[in-house]
Specification:
One of its GO terms (cellular component) is cytoplasm. By secondary structure, the chain is α+β, with helices and mostly antiparallel strands. The protein contains 17 helices and 16 strands. The chain has a 9-stranded mixed beta sheet. A 5-stranded mixed beta sheet has the order 1-11-10-13-8, with no helix packed on it. It starts with a strand and ends with a helix. Bound molecules: 2-oxoglutaric acid. The site of 2-oxoglutaric acid has 11 residues, from strand 9, strand 13 and strand 14.
Length: 510
């Protein structure tokens, strides 16, 4: 069955786009785009590519050969993904070189469709080689809450469950992919319903996208499993909606970056030997997508064990544990995450106000960005208030029985990892506010964390502002009260400055 193609993905010169325009056209509308002009001067584009534009496999093997990586077997399905194996980069490159030699010596250079090609995926390259600085995150994508957070904190703290998930696969979401012509990624929507960007260092990819409004068409009658490969013979009995789907398609060339918005299903094929760099992330513009997915996965986890509810001492705790194991975080992890962000944003606003009481230019844009972010946290937090997990019926933290969940504010403010988070944010919002022509400086990507630490103002802890934040936050309702009280304080601090109206505006939303 052939696919219905409704159009192509827009191609835009990234150098002619401001950060504000990107927000308006692509983040807020949740639309995909192909971007050119954003990979000039990337080290990866020189040292990982030969003069004739092919992957420099010898360089990769000689420099990074001992790394252990995940390799997908493109011809073998395992559940909703391809079967994976672990091998060293050196072993993978040896396989790839042998494959190329075999193809070259064939009289007809045709790839066997049924061949079980190997595809190196999800290599945590930046984590493993922070000093190599292979690339610089394009400026539109630096406001990345997921990776910034994982650079300083763990997403899930439960010592009894999913520890290996944290340590290996969840250390960050910055990846390198590489594979021969014919390798591919099955149909999926991204982890946490995050955004992703993917940059072709060399090679070409063919992408097929389906908008979130049509995603139901990909599922079976029970809405449980979705189509795996859009080019196989998809059973109409099993997936009755599939043939109605209208796809967008595009070919991504070398040195082009694609933006994949939240919740868009996509399938990707390497049309040549390809190396790409790929990040998943979220920020204020798609935070609600992450929350909605978590809520959906929670309902499924709960339904799955409903029949043992009566014999469970801590049913809610078990649901949360299963949610963390399946999705990579649970409600408490997500709530801790947004609470840290909310407090970091309030502290940064306070410091901005202290240093610059009447905002203009960059300071004003920085403040606007912080307020936009706080609004999104506020909205998501409001949706969390009625949940069982946070009500008095179930006051237990799922980490240990009989232990109340709460976040101590002063403890958070003095934790070195929190200070690092604030300082990284400060730097990023300064960069996006300056107009974002260059994004973060190339050297910053590999910079040691300690170089980035700037102490929070030394008198912060003694300030009335910290008193306004209160002592602890134990649930979403308390988080909202904290934001309200801090905003009231900030309003009073600078009643006549331009920031005042943003704070008022934010109060109206809440
Ligand atoms: O390049 C690929 O094979 C898959 C990339 C992908 O799915 C993504 O960037 O979301």
């Amino acid at each position: 069955m052939s696919l219905k193609i409704g159009g192509k993905i827009e191609r835009v010169n990234g150098k002619e786009l401001s950060y504000e325009q990107f927000v308006e056209r692509f983040f807020e509308k949740n639309e995909p785009v192909l971007l050119t002009g954003l990979m000039d001067d990337w080290r990866a584009c020189k040292s990982w590519v030969t003069e004739d534009g092919k992957p420099n496999l010898h360089f990769v093997s000689n420099h990074f050969g001992s790394s252990k990586v995940q390799v997908a077997e493109c011809g073998k399905r395992e559940s909703t993904d391809q079967k994976r194996a672990q091998m060293s980069v050196k072993e993978f490159i040896t396989y790839w070189l042998e494959l190329s030699n075999r193809k070259c010596s064939d009289s007809v250079n045709c790839s066997n469709k049924n061949e079980n090609l190997l595809y190196l995926k999800d290599w945590h390259f930046v984590k493993e080689y922070p000093n190599f600085v292979a690339y610089c995150t394009p400026p539109f994508f630096v406001d990345d809450w997921l990776n910034l957070y994982l650079d300083t904190h763990k997403m899930h703290e439960d010592p009894n469950a999913c520890q290996d998930i944290n340590e290996i696969s969840c250390s960050d979401y910055r990846f390198v992919y590489m594979g021969p012509k014919g390798t591919w990624t099955p149909l999926h929507a991204d982890v946490f319903r995050s955004y992703s960007w993917s940059a072709n260092v060399c090679g070409r990819k063919q992408w097929h996208f389906l908008s979130p409004s049509q995603c139901d068409l990909l599922f079976d009658r029970n809405m449980r499993s979705s189509v795996y490969d859009i080019f196989e013979d998809v059973s109409e009995t099993q997936f009755p909606g599939f043939k109605k789907a209208i796809w967008l398609e595009c070919t991504q060339e070398q040195n082009e970056v694609i933006f994949v918005p939240s919740g868009w299903y996509h399938q990707v094929h390497n049309m040549e030997d390809t190396i790409s760099i790929n990040h998943n992330w979220f920020n204020a513009y798609n935070l609600s997508w992450v929350w909605n997915l978590l809520m959906k996965d929670y309902c499924e986890a709960k339904e799955y064990i409903e029949d043992i509810r009566d014999i469970c001492d801590n049913f809610e705790g078990l649901c949360q544990r299963n949610l963390a194991a399946n999705t990579g975080m649970n409600f408490f992890d997500f709530f801790t995450f947004i609470t840290r962000f909310a407090i970091a944003h309030l502290v940064l606003l306070y410091q901005l106000l202290q240093n610059e009481r009447g905002f203009s230019g960059t300071g004003l844009r920085q403040a606007q960005q912080l307020i936009t972010n706080l609004k999104s946290i506020y909205e998501v937090s409001s949706n969390m208030i009625p949940l069982d997990a946070f009500t008095e019926k179930n006051p237990y933290c799922p980490l240990e029985e009989n232990q109340y969940f709460s976040i101590e504010i002063r403890e958070m403010l003095t934790a070195p990892e929190f200070i690092r988070l604030c300082s990284k944010f400060n730097r990023i919002y300064r960069a996006t506010s300056v107009g974002c022509e260059q994004g973060i400086r190339k050297s910053d990507e590999g910079m040691e964390d300690h170089l980035l630490i700037q102490p929070l103002e030394s008198d912060l802890l003694d300030s009335e502002f910290v008193n306004a934040l209160g002592c602890k936050i134990s649930d979403p309702k308390r988080l909202i009260e904290t934001i309200n009280s801090a905003i009231k304080y900030l309003n009073a601090m600078a009643p006549s400055c331009t920031l005042f109206s943003f704070l008022n505006e934010s109060k109206n939303v809440v």
